[in-house]
Design brief:
Blueprint (H helix, E strand, L loop, with lengths): L3 H6 L2 H10 L21 E5 L6 H9 L5 E2 L7 E5 L10 H7 L11 E6 L7 H20 L5 E6 L9 H7 L10 E4 L19 E5 L4 H12 L3 E6 L4 H11 L2 E4 L7 H8 L4 E6 L14 H25 L2 E10 L3 H4 L5 H25 L2 E7 L5 H4 L3 H9 L9 H12 L10 E4 L8
Parallel strand pairs: 1-2, 1-3, 3-4, 4-5, 5-6, 7-8, 7-10, 8-9, 10-11, 11-12, 12-13
Helix pairs in contact: 7-15, 9-10, 10-12
């Protein structure tokens, strides 16, 4: 559904009126397209203090294809290396680096602050590094003009593990992500022969793929070179077939809650799966006092139980190949809660628990990463049916003052799925424009 307010604020009368009334002024977001695959402009590389990662990081940033510089009048992106900030006094270096340049950032630009994990053994370092989180979340709320700000915690001895993540965050693919804290391990990245098709030779299965977010995920994975299997319930058969046919993918009509779902998935992927995307989900909204047991059970079964059962069975059977990726769809409702959605929020919070617990074990036992994407207000047929005032509140209550698109969730999923994203494990990334809910 078209966002008429966004279009109105792009006109001269709209800008004048909304400024006078103090209303949100969303900026159109520049997303990936074949014509705009990268940011337009130089990348400013700054350092707060003396970082041991400066040389390696500079070479890595140059590999993104952007022009890396230490001085630019209108940078498209800014990377601030704050990994050496280990006392509160050294936070002054963060201010000194960004204060003079933040206003010059191009519209729709990117700011990535690099930090390290707060130390359990040094409370001064922990205080300084945790301070970066508050800084980044606040800057994301004030920077405006469609720009985004993230905190990326890296292992200074394994800077190369951050390449896929930096490529993603410093590109149009991350247009609707802001105020996020992403922590990487030191795991060595898998090889990528062609960054325009990083999933070439890999097989991916997407549940709930007939329409909406699932169809967009399938499309982006196919764009990135994957052979895709589109799974959805049999009643969506015609729609599922159209989606799959348009992508050159395989349609698999199947209820993911069926007892033999894992066996049928394995049969559809005789060479195994490299990427498993748990996107299927339902809502049965009602306040708890008015919610029958069957409404509760159906949501938990589809959104959470089926994910657990299928994942366990596919791991046990070896259907998920080593070096594989599991990506589940959570929700900001699972982080912040939502009125009338105790069942849905419980199921999506459960996904977050699954990711955090399974990720280290899957990596150790199977060389498989487990992550989740947590969408906020995404423009779909479901949100188009929401009453007008609630829909407008959902759109505006984030730092970008607009709803996201299914492709925003899909791009994040594709980043998780890349073979070079081995260091991205156990992460829950909100695709919500930095929603005020659960912020």
């Amino acid at each position: 559904m078209a966002d008429r307010y966004l279009h109105f604020t792009g006109t001269a009368p709209g800008r004048f009126l909304t400024r006078r009334l103090g209303l949100p002024q969303p900026a159109p977001l520049r997303r990936w397209s074949p014509k705009t695959p990268t940011l337009h402009g130089p990348l400013l590389h700054l350092t707060a203090g003396d970082s041991a990662a400066t040389g390696e990081l500079g070479a890595l940033l140059a590999a993104t294809g952007l022009e890396v510089t230490t001085s630019a009048e209108r940078p498209a992106g800014i990377v601030l290396d704050a990994t050496a900030v280990d006392t509160p006094g050294r936070l002054a270096g963060v201010h000194a680096a960004l204060h003079p340049v933040v206003r010059s950032l191009a519209p729709g630009g990117r700011v990535v602050v690099l930090g390290v994990r707060p130390s359990a053994d040094d409370h001064h370092q922990a205080a300084a590094q945790q301070a970066l989180e508050g800084f980044v979340r606040s800057l994301g709320k004030e920077i405006g003009r469609g720009a985004t700000v993230q905190l990326l915690r890296i292992a200074p001895e394994a800077v190369g593990a951050a390449e896929s993540t930096l490529r993603f965050l410093l590109s149009p693919r991350s247009a609707y992500i802001s105020g996020q804290v992403i922590e990487l391990t030191a795991a060595a990245p898998g090889p990528v022969a062609d960054w325009t098709a990083p999933l070439a030779g890999r097989t991916a299965l997407v549940t709930g793929a007939a329409r909406g977010i699932g169809a967009s995920v399938a499309s982006v994975l196919a764009r990135d070179g994957a052979r895709v299997i589109c799974l959805d319930v049999p009643r969506t058969g015609d729609e599922l077939a159209r989606t799959a046919d348009a992508l050159g993918a395989t349609a698999l009509p199947l209820d993911i809650t069926a007892g033999d779902a894992a066996e049928r998935i394995a049969a559809a992927a005789p060479g195994g799966l490299d990427v498993l995307v748990h996107n299927a989900g339902i809502t049965r909204d009602r306040r708890l006092a008015n919610m029958p047991a069957e409404r509760w059970a159906s949501v938990v079964d589809v959104n959470l139980d089926s994910v657990l059962r299928t994942t366990d069975a596919l791991l046990k059977a070896g259907t998920l190949n080593r070096g594989g990726r599991i990506v589940a769809t959570a929700s900001i409702a699972g982080i912040a809660g939502n009125n009338g959605q105790t069942n849905y929020a419980a199921s999506k919070a459960g996904i977050i628990g699954l990711v955090r617990a399974l990720a280290p074990r899957a990596a150790a036992d199977h060389d498989i990463t487990v992550n989740a994407v947590a969408p906020g207000f995404i423009e779909t047929k479901m949100t188009a049916a929401v009453p007008l005032l609630i829909r407008e509140a959902g759109r505006r209550m984030n730092s970008l003052a607009q709803g996201g698109l299914p492709v925003d969730v899909a791009e994040t999923t594709a980043w998780f799925a890349q073979p070079a994203s081995t260091a991205v494990n156990g992460q829950v990334v909100r695709v919500c424009g930095q929603s005020l809910l659960g912020a």
